[in-house]
Amino acid sequence: MLFEMILMKFDSNELSRAGTFLGPFSLTLFILLVVFICLSIFLSIINDNFRLAREKVIEDPEVFSHIIRKFLQWTGMRKRPEWEIQEEKDQQMRENYLYTTDTLRLRTNQLVNQINRMYFNQRTANV
Q: Which residues cross the membrane (predicted)?
């Protein structure tokens, strides 16, 4: 019920019927505290991050040129160079290669587990 109260999704009739003064008073006090505390925490986090962002201003010309290049490619006004296409294909190939090596590692682990199970099953059958 407290979580529903924090989200403001609850029926206050139940609480007000519990006591004529104490129910509404505690509800109002809880809502005020939670809303103001949560709001102040949220604003302080936002404020702190904006302050940090203002301190770490990145003046990198590569960022702007990258944005312009991607926009021109997206609109079709500039064709992608051959080396970029080849680099993307190489990246996809590397990802596929890593995926197969991960699969190989999993398969070898499964094989080792099966051999261990067979070995222990034979050992317990002989005893």
A: 20-46
Query: Rounded to whole angstroms, how far apart are CA atoms 43 and 111?
Result: 55
For residue 77, the 8-state DSSP code is S
Q: Could you tell me how many residues make up the chain?
A: 127
The position carrying tokens 């160079």 is 81
Contact, 23 vs 16, CB < 8 A? yes
At 32, the amino acid letter reads L
Residue 80 tokens read as 């992608």
Domain chopping of the chain, boundaries: 1-57
Please state whether the predicted TM-score (pTM) of the whole model is above 0.85.
no
pLDDT along the chain (127 residues), means of 10: 66 73 81 82 92 80 83 84 86 75 83 89 74
